[in-house]
Predict the structure.
Amino acid sequence: MNHRGAPMRNATLYRLILLTPLTPVLACAPESDVPVVGLQAMSFANSEWSEPVLLDAPVNSRCQDQTPTMSKDELSLYFLSDRPGGFGNLVSTTGCMDNFDLWVAQRSSTDGAWETAVNLGPTINTTRNEAGPALSPDGHLLFFSSDRATTGILHDIYLAHRADPKDDLGWGPPRPLGPDVNTTLHEAGPFYSQSAEDGSANLYFYRGSDNGATTDIYYAPVTRDGETRGPAVLVSELSYPGRPDGFVTVRADGKEILFNSGRPLTPGGANAFDIWVATRPSTHDAWSAPVNLGPPVNTTFAEFQPDLSHDGRTLLFIAGVARGGLGGFDIWMSTRTVNGKEEP
């Protein structure tokens, strides 16, 4: 199973691949066989996703650009990249780095253009791999995964704080989360979810073996400061036996969850590398059976690493160059619509 879905080019890229649960499959069942999420399953009544668009440069590059996440105000976009300017070594044959760092792009308004992305710097990034950034709604916490202190390709999840939620380069030194989250297995793809009902918070992530053949989604209760309050719990209703699941994003009201999965599109059918969705009536209920998000977001190519904006109206995800793009894996965007109009 490829953990970032990138074509293997060297050992370092293989480490990136093992960050992304799911092996990209470039052919899958016909669209008519894809169980598309029904409108009744969406918490936003009568809503659907628009045709995705590729984010232009300077966000995307000819290198790998993945694991996007936006700040609550949608003015900062965090993601990983192996573009030139990182803390590893430049590979002459590709023009990209041999490791993956976290980067941030900013814009002055939600309808403005993204400015040139900036490396988060040596406080956050290392010569190893950093991936899967996730921000708390208040902007004071940054979760991400890294293999800086592990053997081989395994990742642990780290937490950094900043005093000023508008200072994207003001992060303090990160520290690994404790044994409630990190184990001898591979933990990555963090997502901080804060309940709109009672203010409680959970950290979602995925855990699996080093070969990535099977990964499952977990959550651990955390404080508003990101400290764990108990051991991680398997989200069993989202798991598919023997398949990789991961990269969760939860709508702010806690009633809708999207994730990528390598489960079959139909029982016993061909594998897919798609985005799936589940819902629930309240944050105290179990999730519904996951449903494939369907077209236009999912295609016969690979789509994964979803990220919902805080208002639930914008979906970021990544797809390979086969779908069209600047090179490697790129970041795409879709907006939630109702009868052709953006969700109010």
Remarks:
- Helices lie at 11-17.
- The chain has a mean pLDDT of 84.
- The chain has one helix and 24 strands.
- Residues 63 and 83 are 5 Å apart (CA to CA).
